[in-house]
TrEMBL record:
Pfam families assigned to the protein according to its UniProt record, in alphabetical order: Thiolase_C_1 (PF22691)
Domain called Thiolase C-terminal: residue spans: 273-395
Organism of this sequence: Nitratireductor indicus C115
UniProt xrefs under CDD domains: SCP-x_thiolase
Gene Ontology molecular function: acetyl-CoA C-acyltransferase activity
Protein name listed in UniProt: Thiolase
InterPro entries per the UniProt record, alphabetical: Thiolase, Thiolase-like, Thiolase_C_2
Signal peptide extent: none
Length: 413
């Protein structure tokens, strides 16, 4: 792991804190489940976050509002329209359109606005209803990623039907260069489902065995059914304030200790990049340097985990092990909440559900805050004081991720 200059500098460490969060129940649109709009999910998630923080929406007049891009029912002026729907008048609007990095990117933007004195607090919201989206075919939503640009130039015509097929190509390249077994990746899926069984909010809670994982049908070789994230409808929100204000709002603030962001990352040549390396190899060292922590100081990792392979690559690129040794690392460590390397402690997206590609990134952040506040009943990491949270957004052609954001959170500033 090479040293890089801290992005934002040490002066940002501990200057803002998250004081509330909300996550609606998720829906797979089974018979009898309510069919809600994106705006309804946003309002619901915002209400839950405000209740947890003991705040009201009037506390955000003249403050900040962050809105994550939704692929369903959005307009050109959607963030301002969301303020109208919620009935608040913010002085600053923050837009999240970096896919699974949206939640963490808005946290960074809000933190800088707060530190600059433009606002003192921000309500950050996101929701999506991908299961209600018109579709060309099952699993192929009518999203910008699927309707223009390099997807239809180089992938769609050859049968690449979405993220599973795209990531299968990346995983196959990794397996060509490095050693990883289905059993090692399966351990991630099995552990995620175990954590989901302890989380009432997870969409799939019935545990499965490693053998059941191996027996699940192959969808896009080498990715199996139990490697794939379930898509859900739902919404999430969190509230970030200045550290000073946080002390008056809650006795359990969760501080942002460090962050790093990398976009349009290439490892090596832009003509033929190394697709086994993600932007976490740059953003994670920056976050850790800003926070002043090392790997041994981190009590848990909440990766963006739509596929077990992405969790493994995250571990490698954060520097918890060398490139190519991620499979061995998974095999040698206990990934459960009470193990030596707690990861995806709420079941992650892999078993908890992904509320649209742009909003799945709220989940690692919300779970990290939940753990550091000591509110993860039944799956609480013992003595959790510092956590690592990841955002991972976009699947560009021929590379594993368009945006990679790393965040270090702590229960103390």
């Amino acid at each position: 792991m090479h040293s890089l200059p801290a992005q934002g500098g040490e002066f940002m460490r501990g200057k803002v804190a998250i004081v509330g969060y909300g996550r609606t129940p998720y829906s797979r649109l089974k018979p009898g489940e309510p069919v809600l709009t994106v705006d309804e999910y946003i309002a619901w998630a915002a209400e839950l976050a405000l209740e947890r923080a003991g705040m009201s929406k009037s506390d955000f007049d003249g403050q900040g509002l962050g809105v994550s891009h939704a692929e369903v029912a959005h307009t050109v002026n959607w963030s301002a329209a969301t303020a109208e729907n919620l009935g608040i008048s913010p002085n600053a609007l923050i837009r999240g359109d970096q896919g699974g990095c949206s939640a963490t990117s808005m946290l960074i933007r809000a933190a800088t606005l707060i530190e600059a004195g433009v606002i003192d607090r921000a309500l950050i919201v996101g929701a999506d209803t991908p299961l209600s989206m018109p579709s060309l075919a099952p699993g192929l939503p009518l999203s910008p990623e699927r309707t223009r640009g390099v997807f239809w130039d180089f992938q769609g015509p050859f049968g690449v039907m979405g993220a599973t097929a795209q990531f299968a190509l990346i995983l196959r390249r990794y397996m060509h260069e490095h050693q990883v077994t289905p059993e090692q990746l399966g351990k991630v899926a099995v552990t995620n489902r175990y954590h989901a069984s302890l989380n009432p909010g997870a969409i799939y809670r019935k545990p499965f065995t490693l053998q059941e994982y191996l027996d699940s049908r192959m969808l896009s070789d080498p990715i199996r059914l139990f490697d794939c994230v379930p898509i859900v409808n739902g919404g999430l929100a969190y509230i970030v304030t200045s550290a000073e204000s946080a002390k008056a709002i809650t006795d359990r603030p969760v501080y942002v200790l460090g962050f790093g962001e990398t976009n349009n990352f290439y490892s090596g040549s832009r003509v033929f990049p190394d697709v086994t390396v993600t932007g976490f190899s740059e953003s994670a060292p920056r976050a850790m340097e800003m926070a002043g922590v090392g790997h041994d100081d981190i009590d848990f990792l909440q990766p963006y985990d739509d596929y077990p392979f992405i969790s493994m690559k995250t571990i490698e690129d954060w520097g918890f092990c060398k490139k190519g040794e991620g499979g061995k690392f998974l095999e040698e460590h206990d990934l459960r909440f009470d193990g030596d390397f707690p990861m995806s402690t709420d079941g992650g997206q892999l078993s908890g559900g992904q509320p649209g590609g742009a909003n799945g990134g709220f989940m690692p952040l919300v779970e990290g805050v939940t753990q550091l506040r000591g509110e993860a009943e039944g799956r609480q990491v013992p003595n959790a004081g510092i956590g690592a949270v990841c955002g991972f957004g976009g699947i560009p052609y021929g590379r594993p991720g368009r945006s990679c954001i790393s965040v270090i959170l702590g229960s103390e500033a």
